[in-house]
Structure formats: structure tokens, C-alpha cells
Write a structure and sequence with these properties.
925 residues, Rossmann fold, Dimethylsulfoxide Reductase, domain 2, Barwin-like endoglucanases, seven-stranded mixed sheet, six-stranded mixed beta barrel, 30% helix, metal ion binding, BFD-like_2Fe2S-bd_dom_sf
């Protein structure tokens, strides 16, 4: 296998050559996955022009060759029909964008930004960037905003992800530095997972935990989560606390640790400060009081404290459940308090370990890409830090005025304070809370630039200037994963059409803006490649807590990914921090934080009696701009569905599958509901991925609240008061059409704006298809239905049709080469599962013609059975197939051997284990 740092383009074969044409040699380029913060190594298989496949890199220390269901399908995403390929410019609000060239596009942007800055000042413009950028991209944007424009209005979508963890680490330990590494997950004796469905969000790390638990059954795992998830299935103890009560839980555990004498007084005395104040606070958090606040059994609380207190090595892992909260900083510090009180930090298998949500959120924090930060973990509000960076950059000063964090920034856009906004590699029109206001802000902003690889995102709709960016596998740079490990990201193939790497776009724009804002002065952006950006940036970390000044691309290529600190002269990275008990605080001691417990901003009341939680799907990523192009990734969860406990359905006289209206104080959605005993009564659950592209009504975040933590400014995306009622939508619509799915998607999606409910997703595996479900109070105009039929290709040709105008019912099925290729049901959709099954099987049933030509709802011989979901996406194994195997007496190993499910990424194994525990098994004679 040949692995190279970068692959040259293979020259084309001359047209008139008499020599036989030789296929390009298959090559392999080592890079990283572009999804979560685990930072898995990936080997891209390609021919120099096109990505052909992917496999896990067995040499990468994050994953040792394993990939999850998302990472293993990277080569199937990035559909060219969804890619932004050329600059597009809109010359006036309300006009359509038209194709431009790079020079005209960037000159126009520079002129608009320069005029805006001259007229309204540097804080009238802003940059909103992303944890999916490479470190070099991040650095270029920071230098652009701070050194050239002179504003701190630069924030990242990491604000929605990790900013509470940043504050927690800095307040408690003195620096934003996770002290652990992945190996500690395997070496811990007691592991606490809080606010993370690790099995879905960080699946490769969860596989490592599963293997460790199997090898050492005495390892104890505690999971804190209001909802029962796949992660809970591995736990010895699940604490299903009431949403938002984490601080009370951690204070209560500390109360018991102190009462039982399970604290390390010698460590506290030698290495910490503030314990007395915390001790006084937690005295009131008795087991009785905390069990009542958290809604858990007192015995479970005591058990959790005992497991932690008696553990030789205690490790904690957490993610959005703690961070996305108005008390996110307090939750982080309260958890870190447990480690400091027990001396469980700075040693093997122990420590507080935040799991980063995005692939390079860490790199963004390192380069200063939050509005309150500067490169090298410096503070924008610190005059000495500003002076240090200004001297290094060769500018007189950096801006003093505090920058706006994400929620504040978009509110400033909405009220007209920010008049030019540059958005890169992120989709705020799906991901930010209170989407009504976000869409209003983007619609009214005088000039919006969107730098994006996929033109299909909700945010691109508002772009006055759309700049096509290179995507995964098409650019070079570096990323830092959750364990502080930096990996060299290598380019395998060229970007399509005119798409460019993000740093190239940013620096090209910056040079044009320089000519307008500081003519005649030497350029600050003379970078020739990504490596020159890295080399300039790394020295800003010298003698800082994250010192990586000793690293280079060459070292990363020759020695592999490295953990910082890696100062000049170092031979290898640093596996664990604080082993000597010295912390980067003013006193050198870690700080106990005595934050009071405060309930969430929104509580249950008579109008909104349910608390809505949000989370991840197993096979989707964020707003689905990439994963949403791969039909097979919808096999496990086909559409947006609200989960409620069966008791809540009974109270509202609802049935699984019915359409409901879900309301919060900010907006409402129409979508199907399902019974789910994993959700406690009084609560509701909805995946966070669904935006206005896939689910009409602005998606999940039309419901969530913009209130944020006062220290981290991270919004409360995990807790919103809601109510659910039956949606009276008698006229329903169903369609499925295979082929050309992205173009059809773009053409059809606008036609469903008049429907109350509309879901557009993908389905299929070998034959991807667009799947549409919609409903409204009455039939749409005939002209609209005709437009839809034309785009579904059921208006002419080999189409079987039945119409009953009186009942406003219509049926269309297109059959080619003896199989169904397109379906449209209007007015009633009882046969949709039967028809979808026929399409999936590649056939046209003998009863099809008779049913289509008669006023029948359900076809002859059909029991209306719904197609089984795909349980194992890697090997295409359905839930029905697994259940049939269980019924024949197969155990987990038997299922793996016969069906191959669970033998690739392993993400389906927890679900298979649950089926094994609940499904009937054949009884031997």
C-alpha cells in the first residue's frame, strides 16, 4: 500500500496516442475523518482525481483502523450535485445569484467590507466560522479579523459545542487543556459518562470502552443522562436525572464523598485552593435533597458516590448534555471538583475528559477562534496578551472592545448593528437556537458572504456572495482532536471545478481588503501554502500551556500524530497533564469552584408541560450537509420523529405514527410522534440534525431557546418547554422517485412550502431515491400537484394512474423495465409502505395494476407492514433479518457469523443486544 503526504494529479492521456490507455494507479493518502472530535485516521483510496473508497488507518492512535458508520461512508458523501462549484453573486436583495469569477467576487466583497468599515466602524462587520475548518484556516480568519479589520467580532460554531468546557477547564485548572488521553478510557477503574450518548456521538471511542469493559468486567461505568440510550446499555449504573440538575447531582456526590471520608485531603492541601467554601456549599446537598431534586433513587446516588470514592482510577467523560446549558460552566466545574477532591487527575486512567464535538474545535480554541480569545490560549480582554500578538503580527494594536459570541452576534445582525457578515463552513440557519430570529437576521443583513462546500445548506439560501470551498480529501492542513493530538491532514484529490481551500479564499480576500484599508503597507497575508500558516502560528504558542512550537509537518509525517505540549526540542508529545500536581494558575494550584445549583431557565408549566431534549442520530452528522447526500445513512432513521413516553401519548390520545404539532415559546413544528419508553414521562426527545431543508418549519431549533451561560455564552439547546397536540391534517401526500436525487431535491423542496407538514429525505442503497411525505388541511391547487408530478416523472410515459377528483385522491406509479422507479400518492397514503417495499425489492407486484385502477386504499393481500429499518448500515442488515435470526436461536456471535451485522463499525451491537434480550427465541424440542 502506497501512502504519500500529497498526491499529484495524474496527467491526462494524449488524445491521439496509439498506446493502450492505462488506468490510473490506485493510491492511498492518509488523512483524518471530518466528523467528530475523536479524530480518526482515514486512508483515502483514489486515482489522483476521484475518491474511490475509504478505510481506517491502522497506524493512527485514535482509531487503529476502525471507522464508524459515518466515517466508513465518507467516499459516498460529497455528491457533486450538492457542491458549490463556482462563485455566485447577488447584486441586490430579492434578485437571484448569478455565476461570477473569483476576482470579481472577492473584489466586490472587499469593496463592501471596506465601505462598511469606513462608514460604520470595524465592529459593523463580523465573521462566524467553524470547528470543521482546519487549524490553518482558523488562523487566517483570526488574523484577518483582529489584525486587519480591527474587530473581535469573530466567533465559531464551537460556541455551541465546547465553550462551557473551555470555561470549566480554565476556571478550575488554569488552562483549556483536557489532561487525559484515549488510553485512559481503557485503563480507568470507574468511568462516569455525563450528558453524552457516546455510542452515537463518539462511536469509535465507545468501541474502545466496550472492549475494555469486556476485558475487565470489574471496570464500573456510570452514565448520567435523562434518556436511556445505547450508551446506557454498557453501564453498571444509569442515573436518569431530571434535565438540568447536573450541578445538584455532582454537589450531592461530593457531599457523600466527604461524609464517607473518600476524599484525598493530602492532595487537596498540597495542590488546590477553595475547598472550604465548596465544603460549606455542598453541606446542604444531602442525599435526600439531591435524590428529590434529580428525580433519582437515593440508593443509586449513594452507589454512584461509592463507585467513585473507592475507585483507584476515576475518569469522567462528558459532552453536550453538560455544555449546552445556561449552567454549563457550573456543571463543568462541579464535575471537575470531584476529581480534585479525590486526587483523581494527572495519573493513568483518571481525570476530567471533555469529548469534543467537532473535528477541530480544539484547533479553533488554540488559534483563538472564539470572540473572547486570541491565539495561543490568550485572552482578547487581556492588554498584555493583545500587545504580545500585535507585536508578533507587526501591527500597532489589536481591538480592545469585546467581541460578540454566536447568539449575541446574530442578534446584532438582526437589529442592524452588523451590516456585513462572513460565514464559513457552518450552517447557522439550522444549528443556532430560536431559528425564527436567525432567519430574520440573515434575510435583513445588507451583505452576507457564505464560504461553503455544499450549496444546499439552509444558510446558503441567504448568501449574497457564495464562495465554493474545498472539502474533505481536497485540502491540506492540521487538526487537533479531543486528546490534544495534532494530525497532518493531507490532500488526496483536487477540489471540483473552481472550489478553493478555505485559507486560500480568506487570504486572497484579505490581500484585497488590505489595499483598501492600509494601502502601501506590507501585506500580512503572504502565505504560500498551509504549511507557512502553520509555521507562523505555532510560535504564538511558545512557552504557553499548549506549546506546540516544536512541531512541524515533517515531524507529524515522520513520527505520526502528536499530543501537545510539544515544545521546541521535544522528542515526543505529552500524554497526560498535571502529573506533578502543578497547574497553570496564578498560584500553581487548581481551584475548587463553589457554584450554586440553579434550575434551568425554562420549567414545565400548564402551557408547556414537557421538557424537550435534543441529541444525535447514529448515522447522521450535524446539519447533514454532507451525510444528507448519502441515501444509505437514512436507513436507520428515515425521518424526523418526536419521541414521547407511552404515558404521554395516552394522555393526549395519540398513536405512534400520527402527526402532531410540537410547540415551544418560540415556534412550532409538525412531525410524526412515536412511543419511546427510553424517554421519561414529562419529557420529549427530538434529534438535533433536522433543519428546514429536510423538515419544513425551520427544523428542530425553531423550538430551542437562545438563553446562554453567562460565562461561556453557550446557549441552552438541551432544555425547552414544549407541548404536543394532534395535528388535524387529513390530506396526505407520499412520493418516492429514484435517480438524480440532489437536483430533484432542490427543485421539489420549494413546492412544499404551502404544506403544513413536509419531510424530504433520501432512501435506498444501490438505487438512491428521494422520499417525500407531506400533509395539509386540504388538497393543494391542481396546478401545484401538476408541477410536482412533472418533477417526479409521473406526468407522462409508462405511468399507471388513478384519479378520483371527488375524493381528491390520486395514485401514480411509473414502471420501467418491469420495476417501479417512481411513486406518487395524493389524498390518502395507506399503501405507501407496500409500494415502497415493491420498489425496494425491484419488482412490480401482479396486484399492482388492479389496485391502481380501482378506488382501493390498501392493496389486495397487503397487511400494510412497514419496511424494517436498517440496523447494520455497514453490511445492510435489516432489523427484520436480525429478529428472524434470533427467532431461529442465533446468539450475538451467531448473528455476526451468519448475517455479518456488528462485524464492521459495531455501532449496531447495542441495539442487537437489546433485541436478543426482548425477542422470542425458538424453543428446541
Amino acid at each position: 500500500m502506497r501512502r504519500t503526504p500529497a498526491q499529484p494529479r495524474i496527467p491526462p492521456v494524449p488524445e491521439l496516442s496509439l498506446q493502450p490507455v492505462v488506468a490510473p494507479a490506485t493510491q492511498h493518502t492518509a488523512t483524518t475523518c471530518c466528523y467528530c472530535g475523536v479524530g480518526c485516521g482515514v486512508l483515502i483510496e483514489h486515482d489522483g482525481e476521484k475518491i474511490l473508497g475509504v478505510q481506517g488507518d491502522p497506524e493512527h492512535p485514535a482509531n487503529f483502523g476502525k471507522l464508524c458508520s459515518k466515517g466508513s461512508t465518507l467516499h459516498l458523501t460529497g455528491d457533486l450535485d450538492a457542491r458549490a462549484l463556482y462563485p455566485e453573486l447577488r447584486l441586490g436583495k430579492g434578485l437571484a445569484r448569478s455565476r461570477s469569477d473569483w476576482d470579481s467576487a472577492l473584489d466586490h466583497a472587499a469593496n463592501v467590507f471596506a465601505e462598511t468599515i469606513r462608514e460604520h466602524g470595524p465592529d459593523s462587520v463580523a465573521f462566524y466560522i467553524s470547528g470543521q475548518l482546519l487549524t490553518e484556516d482558523y488562523y487566517a480568519f483570526n488574523k484577518l479579523a483582529r489584525a486587519l479589520v480591527g474587530t473581535n467580532n469573530i466567533d465559531s460554531n464551537s460556541r455551541l459545542c465546547m465553550s462551557s468546557a473551555v470555561v470549566g477547564y480554565k476556571r478550575s485548572l488554569g488552562a483549556d487543556a483536557p489532561p487525559c488521553n484515549y488510553e485512559d478510557i481503557e485503563l480507568a477503574d470507574c468511568l462516569l459518562i455525563a450528558g453524552s450518548n457516546m455510542a452515537y456521538a463518539h462511536p469509535i471511542l465507545f468501541r474502545r470502552l466496550e472492549a475494555a469493559k469486556a476485558a475487565r468486567p470489574e471496570m464500573k461505568i456510570i452514565v448520567v443522562d435523562p434518556r436511556r440510550t445505547d450508551t446506557c446499555d454498557l453501564a453498571d449504573l444509569h442515573l436518569a436525572i431530571l434535565p438540568g440538575t447536573d450541578v445538584a447531582l455532582f454537589h450531592g456526590i461530593l457531599h457523600i464523598l466527604m461524609w464517607e471520608g473518600w476524599v484525598d485531603h493530602a492532595y487537596i492541601t498540597a495542590h488546590t485552593e477553595g475547598f472550604e467554601a465548596l465544603k460549606s456549599l455542598v453541606r446542604e446537598f444531602t442525599p435526600t435533597a439531591v435524590a428529590d431534586i434529580c428525580g433519582i433513587a437515593q440508593a443509586d446516588l449513594l452507589r454512584a458516590a461509592e463507585l467513585i470514592g473507592k475507585s483507584p482510577a476515576f475518569l469522567s467523560l462528558w459532552c453536550m448534555g453538560l455544555n449546552q446549558s445556561t449552567a454549563g460552566s457550573a456543571k463543568n466545574s462541579a464535575l471537575i471538583n470531584l476529581h480534585l477532591a479525590t486526587g483523581q487527575i494527572g495519573k493513568i486512567g483518571a481525570g476530567p475528559f471533555s469529548l469534543t464535538g467537532q473535528p477541530n474545535a480544539m484547533g479553533g480554541r488554540e488559534t483563538g477562534s472564539l470572540s473572547n480569545l486570541l491565539p495561543g490560549h490568550r485572552e482578547a480582554g487581556n492588554p498584555e496578551h493583545r500587545a504580545e500578538v500585535a507585536r508578533y503580527w507587526g501591527v500597532n494594536s489589536l481591538p480592545e472592545r469585546p467581541g460578540l459570541s454566536a447568539v449575541e452576534l446574530f442578534e446584532a445582525v438582526r437589529v442592524g448593528k452588523i451590516k456585513a457578515l462572513w460565514i464559513a463552513c457552518t450552517n447557522p440557519a439550522q444549528s443556532l437556537p430560536d431559528q425564527q430570529k436567525i432567519h430574520e437576521a440573515l434575510a435583513t443583513c445588507p451583505f452576507v458572504v457564505v464560504q461553503e462546500a455544499f450549496f444546499t445548506t439552509e444558510t446558503c439560501h441567504y448568501a449574497d456572495l457564495l464562495l465554493p470551498a474545498a472539502s474533505w480529501g481536497e485540502k491540506e492542513g492540521s487538526v487537533t482532536n479531543s486528546e490534544r493530538r495534532i494530525t497532518h491532514v493531507r490532500r488526496a484529490v483536487p477540489a471540483p471545478a473552481e472550489a478553493r481551500p478555505d485559507w486560500v479564499i480568506t487570504c486572497d480576500f484579505a490581500r484585497r481588503l488590505e489595499q483598501l484599508l492600509r494601502p502601501g503597507l506590507p501585506s500580512l497575508f503572504t502565505f504560500l501554502d498551509s504549511e507557512s500558516l502553520f509555521e507562523e502560528y505555532k510560535h504564538l504558542t511558545s512557552n504557553r500551556d499548549l506549546d506546540l512550537s516544536g512541531l512541524s509537518y515533517a515531524i507529524l509525517d515522520n513520527q505520526g500524530p502528536q499530543q501537545w505540549p510539544f515544545p521546541a526540542g521535544a522528542q515526543q508529545g505529552t500524554a497526560r497533564l498535571y502529573e506533578d500536581g502543578h497547574f497553570p494558575t496564578a498560584s500553581g494550584r487548581a481551584q475548587f469552584l463553589a457554584d450554586p445549583y440553579c434550575a434551568g431557565k425554562e420549567k414545565r408549566d400548564t402551557r408547556y408541560p414537557l421538557l424537550l431534549n435534543t441529541g444525535r442520530l447514529r448515522d447522521q452528522w450535524h446539519g447533514m450537509s454532507r451525510t444528507g447526500t448519502a441515501a444509505r445513512l437514512f436507513g436507520h432513521a428515515e425521518e424526523a420523529v418526536l419521541s414521547l413516553h407511552p404515558d404521554e401519548l395516552r394522555r393526549r390520545s395519540l398513536q405512534t405514527g400520527e402527526l402532531v404539532t410540537l410547540r415551544s415559546r418560540r415556534g412550532e413544528l409538525s412531525l410524526p410522534v412515536q412511543a419511546d419508553e427510553n424517554v421519561r414521562p414529562g419529557q420529549a426527545y427530538l434529534p438535533m440534525h433536522w433543519g428546514n431543508r429536510f423538515l419544513k418549519g425551520l427544523g428542530t431549533n425553531v423550538l430551542t431557546q437562545p438563553a446562554f451561560d453567562p460565562l461561556s455564552k453557550q446557549p441552552e439547546l438541551k432544555l425547552s418547554g414544549v407541548e404536543v397536540s394532534k395535528a388535524e391534517l387529513p390530506w396526505q401526500f407520499f412520493a418516492l422517485v429514484e435517480g438524480d436525487v440532489q437536483r430533484r431535491f432542490e427543485a421539489l423542496r420549494p413546492l412544499f412550502e404551502t404544506f403544513t407538514y413536509a419531510s424530504l429525505t433520501l432512501t435506498g442503497r444501490e438505487r438512491p431515491a428521494l422520499l417525500i411525505k407531506a400533509a395539509s388541511g386540504e388538497a393543494p391547487p391542481t396546478e401545484l400537484l401538476a408541477q410536482i408530478d412533472a418533477l417526479l416523472a409521473v406526468d407522462a410515459g409508462p405511468v399507471l394512474a388513478y384519479d378520483d377528483p371527488r375524493r381528491t385522491v390520486g395514485k401514480r406509479v411509473r414502471i420501467e423495465d418491469g420495476r417501479i422507479v417512481s411513486i406518487r400518492l395524493a389524498g390518502e397514503t395507506a399503501a405507501r409502505d407496500w409500494l415502497k417495499g415493491l420498489w425496494n425489492d425491484g419488482q412490480a407486484d401482479a396486484d399492482l395494476r388492479r389496485w391502481l385502477l380501482a378506488p382501493l386504499s390498501t392493496p389486495p393481500g397487503s397487511n400494510g407492514k412497514k419496511l424494517s429499518k436498517t440496523l447494520c448500515n455497514c453490511l445492510n442488515v435489516s432489523q427484520d433479518a436480525v429478529c428472524a435470526g434470533i427467532a431461529r436461536g442465533l446468539d450475538l456471535n451467531g448473528l455476526k457469523q451468519e448475517l455479518k451485522c456488528g462485524t464492521s463499525c459495531g455501532s449496531c451491537v447495542p441495539e442487537i443486544k437489546r433485541l436478543l434480550a426482548t425477542q422470542p427465541v425458538a424453543v428446541s424440542a
